[in-house]
Every structure is written in structure tokens, then in C-alpha cells.
Amino acid sequence: MSECIVVTSGKGGVGKTTTSANLGVALAQKGNKVVVVDADIGLRNLDVILGLENRIVYDLVHVVEGECRLKQALIKDKRNPNLFLLPAAQTRDKNAINPDQMRELVAQLKEDHDYVIVDCPAGIEQGFRNSIAGADRAIIVTTPEVSAIRDADRIIGLVEAAELPEPRLVINRFRAKMVERGDMMNKDDIMEILAIPLVGIVPDHEEVIVSANKGAPAAYNEDSVVGEAYRRIARRLCGEPEVPYIALTTGGFWKSFKRMIGFSAGGAA
Amino acid sequence: MMKDLLNKLFQKENGSKEEAKARLKFLLVHDQVDLTPAQIESMKTEIMEVIGRYVDVDRSCAEFKLQKEAGGVALVSNIPVTRVTARAV
Lengths: 269, 89
What we know:
The complex is a heterodimer of chains A (269) and B (89). Chain A has 269 residues and is of the alpha/beta class. Chain A contains 12 helices and 8 strands. Chain A has an 8-stranded mixed sheet with strand order 3-4-2-5-1-6-7-8, sandwiched between helices. In chain A, helix 7 links the parallel strand 6 and strand 7 (168-174). In chain A, helix 1 packs across helix 11 (225-237) and helix 5 (99-112) packs parallel to helix 6 (126-133). The longest helix of chain A is centred in the middle third of the chain and has 16 residues, at 146-161. Chain B has a two-stranded antiparallel sheet with strand order 1-4.
């Protein structure tokens, strides 16, 4: 049974596109046939995160307007033959398509793919309404900051009003060191406020920027802690809800003690 | 030096996150409420009037707060009663 998951957040810059790309990779690596759809018409970026920007010929708007067949617009990933990208148009805007057209497009994509991941644009306007139109469920991405959590709360309300069942939360840019000294909200603080089930925590790590530089999502890297976080989210989404969370501490008492008295320059993120 | 070290060792959670949480709890409710500050003020005045018909209350110390609870938003109020003897209405 195939499923469409929309990745949304309200606020921009919290990691929707990174999350969409990495979940696409992680789900494809588990043997699923996956298409990631860039719904950010006019400001596309999923193509660069996946390193596929040079291969775009047709885009989502071309498909909707009947200028090409759906298969012509799908770009096969360089590394995984199970993963496809449907890019957004760059020279149009969010009003180029409507929710009914999106619903129809997603229905078509679901015929040939196990997972359709829709990367939603920031905001609560037309782009958001288009993105949730064909979705079966939503993943809400937030960071442990007041502004991102506020916007996430608003988006959760809109997603629930649209009758999408059980939105799930991804906490991105988690910084263990700051949490340990009480300067960042932890998992329980955020869940207490947003009151939806958690599906993953992704540490704040330089790897994310290096991956974006290279156009190769961290989920491809077996040794990446960020990649591992996304691989575990993919497993939880595929019916393994009990997958444990990766250890998000700076290394316990002795490491903190040594750092405190100057033996080491700093811990992991 | 030693005192700093001990403070760090037995550090309590007193960082800025508590402030973030408290601000968010207030913010999220007020984001949902579609009332102007003037309307909220007049709601408070009217509630106090009704209660004041039955008991004496200290209006200056009365508190009204909208807050997020499990399952929705609650109007929580704390109104000090100065005299409980019923009056003729």
C-alpha cells in the first residue's frame, strides 16, 4: 500500500528540504520505491540537496499543465535507482497549480511508488494548501526554538483541521550541550508544548552543510550521525515504532568533567 | 575557583529554556484566541461583576489566565474573596 507523506513546518529554514531528501534516501535504501516532490514552486531546492539540479528538463507544473508525461519529468537519483525526484518549476509561483491538481498528481504517483514525500514550502498560503492536498499524513519539522515551535503549533492546527490523521514531529538541530546546561528545550519540553507523537530527533551537525555542499544527503553516509538519525526515522515510519533514539548526550559525567577542567576542547553535537 | 567548579558540578537546570517554555505556553494560547485585548478586559470586568453580586472580591488581586492544558485551552482564574456572607441580591 503506498502512502503520501507531507513534510511541513510553517517556519522557513528549519530543515524541511533536508528532511525530505534524507527520508527519501533512507526509505529508498530500505527497498521502497520512493518519489520526493518539490512543492516549493518558484524557490526550488530539493534538486540541489539531492545533487540533481543539472538533470532537470521538465517539472511539476509542466506535468500538471499537460506539457509532458509524468514519467518524463521524474529524475532518477544518481545513487539509488529506487529514488526519484519530481522538481518544482523555478520560473512560476505557488498559484500555478491548485489543490485538486496536486491531489490528482499524488494519486498518479502513488500508483508507481511506495512512498510519495512532498516537500512543502514555508508559510500557510497556497503552497501549503497544495502540499497537504494529496497527503495521507504529515511530518512536522521543528527546531528547539520559540519561533519554530510557535509556527509548528499553528501548522499542527491547520493539518488537523484538514483532517490529516496523526501528524508526527521531527525535532531538528538538537544541541545536546545546550540542552545539558538548560539553555535549549529538550524532547520532553517540546512534546509537552506541541502534544503530538515524536518520530525522530536530528542532531545539529556540520555534516548537514557538507552534505548540501556536495549534493549528497547524509543518509547515504553509513558513518554519519545525522544519516543514522534519518535512517531511524524511516524505520519508525515503516512500522518499527520501537526503534531507539540515537544517544544525544555530550558523553556523560567524566567527559563533561574533563571538558570543564580543560582536558578536551568540546564534545559531539 | 573551587566554588565555580562545585557550582558547575551540581548545576541545576536554570538556563534560558524555562523562559522559552513559559513564553511559548502564553504565546500559543494567545495565537489561538481571536479576541482583542479590549475584549478580554471587558470579559474580565463582566465576570467580576457577576461574582461581586454574591460575594465581596478583591478586584485588584484577581488573576485571569488563558493557558494550554491537555485537550485544549482553559480560562484559569484566581479571585480572592474578601467576604463570603451572602448578600441580598
